[in-house]
Design goal:
Length: 759
């Protein structure tokens, strides 16, 4: 299977899905008519002149908010690309043998997933959030250097293209090879995505591959862009603050962006220097990192002197968002503000003194290793201060069940596990045992996934009304957030378990006894992927279809005196643009006193009704899935009789969970999925599919999932057999959808909820 074509196809499917969502949402949107109603007539299409004007505006803008949105859009595209790499890695690891991709392809995916996510996803998104909101938080008109700000962003797209030029050239060559002789495409076919690991250790990174040169140039260019952004943030915070804002009352997010930017300007120039040295080794015969010269260990020192501060470059903005957003949804101001600021400064300083704990197994002098072990343990203290302050902020608060709350609480839990396991790895004997195992992968991703993207999603929900003037679908947001927390915990806790069993990391194959845990980890990763697509759908659809914001205080922040400057700016904007007067809360209370004389229901008390409803729906869904699967099986038996479907293909299902290839076991697994996975997903998404939760919705849902069945059970049919196979598959799934929806409706599962939904 061609990995490049598969990856580009998956990326194209996501992009086309986003465009279709936008088109359908635009067509369904009704505009206010003069009589106060909503007209649903034909919308005027965008003219060529308007499209040209919009393109010129967005490519030449120096407005900090628009540049922030460009950063976020770029980071989202990079995240989808790197996320597809991750999904392909996890799919490959479903089986112990390298029978989906080759070992070479696995190494390419492993290399580019890490670099894409670290360099082109996380930092740009946080810089985008900072660009949009930091000037609003400190009362500045714009960033200190608006034109330099624009340059910092526009260096990123070409850097990503350079870094991933291999797959672009490979796909272009594969497409042109249909009509053009291969001799004419030798230049394109010479490019191949590097398979050297995201750490780019020599001598692997010295191997001949022209794409490695472009990768290094792309990373160097992105480092220049990041350094420009860091300088701009520092200048903005230091010189552009409003006169009323001093260091004592500077908001916590701005403090974190300031410290992050200080780390950037010390760390990224060093990375750029190391990349240039590696380029010289590759192309001009120098020996900085060759065995006969400076040696590969020198590269490790330079890489990790950048690499570990980089961890905090992407971690500190997330903690700043946590400290800013969490208090808003628990009705209390941030506990221990000064100590969180001090801990952030301490992390910024100590981050440059821990790099060698990545090199405990390289034969470093034991005395040096001991000093780095002490520093690595010490840097956990300021992180722990943050965690204790977050927990104390929630203590005795008025916790609201909302998507940002779920993400914040889930982040705290996963970060505690990831942080504690990091302390274990800081201890030299433990690291020597587990350094080359999945324990490190689990620890690393519990930090990276457990708090960083979570806070990005939380920020998107928290500030979405301000950015778009509309409200997202809160029910879908709560479900998506819960799914993301569950998927992340399931995936990376399982990797921790693999590490405890000492399975080596970075290998494309593994012993068969580990296959069960790998299946669990892959299922968790696909849960993460589904939740991300739900978020993307919610953001795009709600931009056109969400309820219009009628108040500048959608989160009732005035009631707890947490109406921060960016919301004040938004209130002024609404009043100027739409004539919406400022709103005042019915009750203003200190943020540390409960809202009512009686204590509000506990989080447990709020979850119990939801859990009961979920169990009721799950029972109805299981019954519907059982009936639907039996009906589907009947249609498939007809297809077997006609010779267009191989019943033995069910046996292959059993091998995915480590069972022998057995028809009965495979069909039992198929029946189990038909009673659990697909009904629960149907119940979860039913409210967001066209039509009521009845037969029509079931047909929509069955049509979508039929595509996965077609791919999974395809056994090489061609011609008329293929057409018949497709027809029977679609018919079988339609009958499954009718049986599923009909039984759920008969048993009374999932009644329509109120439009307002949970907060």
């Amino acid at each position: 299977m061609n990995r490049a074509l598969m990856e580009v196809s998956l990326f194209s499917v996501v992009v086309i899905g986003c465009l279709l969502t936008i088109v359908l949402a635009r067509r369904a949107r009704g505009e206010p008519s003069p009589d106060g109603g909503y007209a649903t007539g034909h919308r005027r299409e965008l003219s060529l002149a308007e499209a040209k004007a919009a393109a010129i505006r967005w490519t030449t803008t120096t407005n900090h908010r628009e540049i922030g949105l460009l950063y976020i859009a770029f980071g989202t595209v990079a995240a989808i690309w790197g996320g597809i790499d991750a999904m392909m890695i996890r799919t490959h690891l479903l089986t112990p043998e390298a029978n989906l991709w080759t070992e070479q392809t696995y190494n390419e995916l492993f290399t580019m997933h890490g670099l894409t996510m670290l360099i082109f996803f996380v930092t740009p998104v946080f810089f985008g959030i900072g660009n949009y909101f930091l000037p609003l938080l400190i009362g500045a008109d714009d960033m200190a250097f608006p034109r330099l700000n624009a340059i910092g962003f526009w260096l990123l797209p070409p850097s990503l293209l350079l870094a991933r030029l291999g797959i672009v050239a490979e796909v272009t060559g594969a497409v042109l090879a249909v009509a053009v002789p291969n001799d004419w495409l030798s230049v394109l076919l010479a490019f191949q995505e590097p398979a050297i690991g995201w750490t780019m250790y020599p001598p692997l990174s010295l191997a001949p591959n022209p794409q490695t040169n472009f990768l290094l140039l792309g990373l160097h260019l992105s480092g220049i862009a990041t350094t420009i952004g860091g300088i701009n943030f520092i200048a903005t915070v230091v010189y552009e603050r409003d006169e009323s804002i001093g260091w004592a009352n500077l908001d916590i997010f701005s403090w974190n962006m300031l410290i992050t930017s200080a780390i950037v300007i010390f760390a990224f120039p060093l990375l750029g220097t190391a990349l240039l040295m590696l380029l010289l080794d590759r192309n001009f015969g120098t020996t900085f990192f060759a065995v006969e010269g400076g040696g590969p260990i020198l590269w490790q020192h330079l890489l990790w002197f950048w690499g570990h501060p980089e961890v905090y470059i992407i971690f500190l903005p997330a903690t700043g968002l946590m400290s800013l957003i969490l208090p808003k949804f628990v009705g209390r101001k941030l506990f221990g503000f000064k100590f969180i600021v001090y801990s952030t400064i301490a992390i910024g300083v100590l981050s440059f003194g821990v790099w060698a704990h990545h090199m405990f197994v390289t034969g470093v002098d034991p005395r040096i290793r001991a000093s780095f072990m002490a520093t690595s343990i010490a840097i956990a203290v300021p992180s722990a201060i943050k965690v204790f302050n977050w927990i104390t902020t929630m203590w005795n608060g008025d916790v609201r069940l909302a998507a940002p709350t779920i993400l914040c609480v889930g982040s705290v839990g996963l970060f505690i596990v990831g942080g504690v396991t990091g302390i274990f790895l800081a201890v030299i004997p433990v690291d020597i045992v587990y350094h080359g195992t999945y324990y490190v992968v689990g620890h690393f991703h519990l930090i990276l996934m457990g708090i960083i993207p979570f806070m990005m999603f939380a920020a998107s929900y928290y500030w979405y009304p301000m950015i778009t003037g509309r409200m997202y679908d809160r029910r879908l947001a709560i479900f998506q957030s819960s799914l993301l927390v569950i998927g992340s915990g399931l995936t990376f806790m399982t990797l921790m378990a693999l590490g405890f069993l000492e399975q080596p990391r970075r290998y494309a194959t593994y012993p068969a006894e580990y296959s069960g845990l790998h299946v669990v980890a892959t299922v968790g990763s696909f849960i993460i992927g589904i939740s991300v697509l739900m978020w993307l759908y919610n953001m795009l659809w709600s931009y056109f279809q969400g309820a219009r914001v009628e108040t500048a205080d959608p989160w009732e922040l005035k009631a707890t005196q947490q109406f921060t400057p960016e919301w004040q700016w938004f209130e002024d904007r609404l009043e100027r643009k739409h004539g919406i007067p400022p709103s005042e809360p019915e009750e203003v209370r200190p943020s540390y006193v409960p809202a009512q004389e009686e204590r509000p229901p506990s989080l447990y008390g709020r979850i119990v009704p939801v859990a009961r409803r979920a169990l009721s729906d799950a029972g109805a869904g299981a019954a519907g899935g059982f009936v639907g699967t039996l009906l589907l099986t009947g249609v498939l038996l007809v297809a077997v009789a006609l010779g267009v479907f191989d019943l033995e293909s069910f046996a292959n299902l059993a091998t995915l969970v480590g069972l022998p290839a057995n028809l009965a076991l495979g069909y039992g697994l198929f029946l189990f999925a038909g009673m659990t996975v697909w009904p629960l997903l149907f119940l979860s998404l039913g409210e967001y599919l066209p039509g009521e939760l009845t037969f029509i919705t079931g047909l929509w849902y069955a049509t979508v999932i039929a595509s996965g069945f077609v791919i999974a059970f395809y056994t090489g049919q061609t011609g008329l057999e293929l057409v018949t196979y497709l027809v029977f598959t679609l018919l079988a799934h339609w009958i499954y959808g009718l049986g599923l929806a009909g039984m759920i409706t008969y048993l009374g599962g999932r009644r329509p909820t109120s439009p307002e939904g949970p907060r």
